[in-house]
Amino acid sequence: MADLSLATLRSKNRLYYVLLAAGGLVALAGLYAVHMMESHGHIITGMNNQIVWGMPHVFAIFLIVAASGVLNVASIGSVFGKAMYKARAPLAGLLSIAMLGGGLTVLMLDLGRPDRLMVAATNYNLTSVFAWNVVLYSGMFSLTAVYLWTMMERRMYPFSKVAGLGVFVWRFVLTTGTGMIFAFLTARQAYGSALLPPMFIVLSFAWGLAVFHVVQAAIYAWNEKTVDPEILRRKKNLLGVFVVGSLYMVATYHFVNMYFAHQQDFELFILRDGGVFPNLFWWGYIVVGNLLPLLLIYAPGLGKTKCVMTASMLVVLGAFALLYVFIIGGQAFPLNIFPGYQVSSTFADGQITAYHPSLYEVLLGFGGLAIAFIITTVSVRVLNFMPQDKPYIPD
Amino acid sequence: MSDINSQRRQFLKTSLGAAAVAIAPGMLLFDTAHGKTEAASSKVRWGMLVDTTQCKQGCNDCVTACNKENGLSGGTKATDSQWIRKIEIKDIGSGIETSLPMMCQHCEHPPCVDVCPTTASFKRADGIVLVDRHRCIGCRYCMMACPYKARSFVHEELFDQKPDVPRGKGTVEACNMCVHRIDNGQLPACAEACQNKAILFGDLNDANSEIAKKIHSVASVQIRADLRLNPGIRYQGI
Most B CBs within 10 Å: which of A40, A337, A355, as the mutation test of the B interface? Predict the structure, then answer.
């Protein structure tokens, strides 16, 4: 018996290092991509003067939005006092820090001059939502770290509610800030809508919880435990509500746009005529990212552990599809400089721009995921992030 | 006087002399490079009036002159910088076709300046919108924000740059109204190159300037005036 448990421990140990090495390799590949982009310039990416934000931004924004949303689990615990969620708050905090770290690294390393980080840190333009976000992101790191401390250090327990409330408010402001990056783009058909900050907040709920489910399932499997079916039932219902909520926001955004005559060409491009974009929107986001997960969660006879896991992974895939359509599709559609005119020029005016992401961009994006993965794996190993459930009592 | 004191004085004298010799050529070069020392004045607002009726379809003289003046390659790939471009527009209702140059519109309320996180995008007192290449971190947010798609990102290493127009890989750039020429009392390269004199350059604030008089006497519009950015470039004939 003792030999058996030792053998299990050894194989787990080996698996841990294999996982770490795999994550490290992907992160290294990302670094290689950064090195290439640094030495050759963005010419080796698929980005150009029309599609100025590409694949790295899809990854970065997913990570940042999910980093905020994952804290929902913590907020429901600390702010609203639900015991089941409170037990999961430390893991949620850790995931938030990990994903924020990964996302910001991608965003930073995609800059034309990432070496000028100091310039960004010392020159604030008070009217720039980017500059606000620099404050919001660093504040989020610090606040979440303090929050984790209050939850994991016995002497700090009394402060965990206050810290949790702080994080709760901060992450709302943070995701509002992320939405505003696009909402403030007055002239772009795809952006420039006050609906975007709340839409990003609701999306963050669904994406964050989906990521949480996947990681939680992995940790339980690692510890050879299964999630209490009652807990799983409540959490899957919450995911379902968030998925429906985000679908509602996205539908409203497109529906309002459709109503404006001057936005119809853009909407038809995204939803019907734009080739890869409508495909990704309908198949990737609507079917894979929403309908299938809802089916897996709510259909009678389904909704078991594996279904919830699959649903969560599909929600994450759908998130990438939506962000690709939103970010790349939004830029591929020509900027309307002369409303009421047909235009043409050498600078792609009036034309739909093609975008072919290069391997370097994708590597950089995966590098960000790898950083989040490494932070999570190491932390889960060295500290106790395993949810400790008390016997279940309905709140 | 003690020997140590005199040695110290001697040392200080020599040091001062050496410092002066070391600094003087730099100061001289600095002065030569900058030429004028007075700052741009907010009493002036530089602008342009483009007469599209005089702008010929197929003529690219302004673009060529800009490329030559600012050391741009003249390439038209999606990753090449284009500070000024010719746009052909066709009124969907009437079918009337017009050709016009499009560049940075040097807005009074430039969105690029608003969104720039590091204040690298800035508006000079005389209304010229510029990018400080030493502060630009290459985030491209200004390119997303510009309603005129006037900005380009330097996607690759640059060679043979013009001394007056520093550029850099990984930073954003746009028409600077040939600020180095304006500061020398010259016309922007595009205005000078246009054979039909379709681009009139001048001080919008000076009621006696040719441009101000013409704006009062002919109908002209600002592109995307609905955004209320008050661009310094106006167009006549559309």
Answer: A337
Torsion of CA A181, A185, A186, A190, to 10 degrees: -110
Q: Give how far B63 is from chain A: nearest CA, Å.
A: 11
Q: Are residue B63 and residue B23 in the same domain, yes or no?
A: no
- For residues B162 and B68, give the distance between their C-alpha atoms in angstroms, rounded to a whole number: 9
Residues B79-111: b if buried by 16+ CB within 10 A, e if exposed: bbbbbbbbbbbbeeeeeeebbbbbbbbbbbebb
Per residue in B190-213, pLDDT tens?
A: 999 999 999 999 999 999 999 999
Are A23 and A379 in contact by the 8 Å Cβ rule? The answer is no
Provide the sign of the torsion angle of the four alpha carbons A306, A312, A317, A321, taken in this order.
positive
Range of the domain at B129: 46-236
- Pinpoint the alpha helices (H) of chain B: 3-34, 61-70, 111-115, 141-145, 179-182, 189-193, 210-217
Q: Per the domain annotation, does B148 fall within a domain?
A: yes
Please indicate whether, in this complex, the C-beta atoms of A49 and B156 are within 8 angstroms of each other.
no
Q: Is residue B41 part of a domain?
A: no
pTM (2 decimals)? Answer: 0.92
Q: Measured between beta carbons, which residues in chain A are less than 8 angstroms from residue B79?
A: 42-43, 48-49
- What is the ipTM score, two decimals? 0.92
> Would residue B40 count as lying in a domain?
no
Residue A1 scores a pLDDT above 50: no
- B52 in the same domain as B27: no
Residues B55 and B11 in one domain: no
Residue B222 and residue B109 share a domain: yes
Examine the domain organization and report whether B86 and B144 are in the same domain.
Answer: yes
Helix (H) or strand (E) holding A57, with range, is helix A55-69
Q: pLDDT tens digits, residue range B161-180? A: 999 999 999 999 999 999 99
Which structure tokens are listed for B86? Answer: 């010719």
pLDDT digits (tens, 9 = 90+) for A197-222: 999 999 999 999 999 999 999 988 88
Q: Are residues A64 and A178 in contact, defined by beta-carbon separation less than 8 angstroms?
A: yes
Q: How many residues does chain B have?
A: 238
CA distance A231 to A85: 9
Are residues A189 and A326 in contact, defined by beta-carbon separation less than 8 angstroms?
no
Confidence band, pLDDT 50/70/90 cuts, at residue A245: very high
| Cross-sheet strand order for the sheet of B199-203 | B199-203, B46-51, B233-236, B220-221
Within this chain, do residues B30 and B75 fall inside the same structural domain, yes or no? no
Name the residue facing A129 among B115, B148, B168 (closest C-beta).
B115
| Residue B214 Cα, gap to closest chain A Cα (Å) | 23
B142: CATH = 3.30.70.20
Residue B173 maps to a domain: yes
**Count of domains observed in chain B:** 2
Interface touch B78/A42, C-beta < 8 Å: no
Structural domains of chain A in order of their starting residue, each with its CATH number: 60-90+121-356 (1.20.1630.10)
**How far apart, in whole angstroms, are the C-alpha atoms of residue B23 and residue B20?**
5
| Exposure class string for A341-353: b at 16+ Cβ within 10 A, else e | bebebbbbbbebe
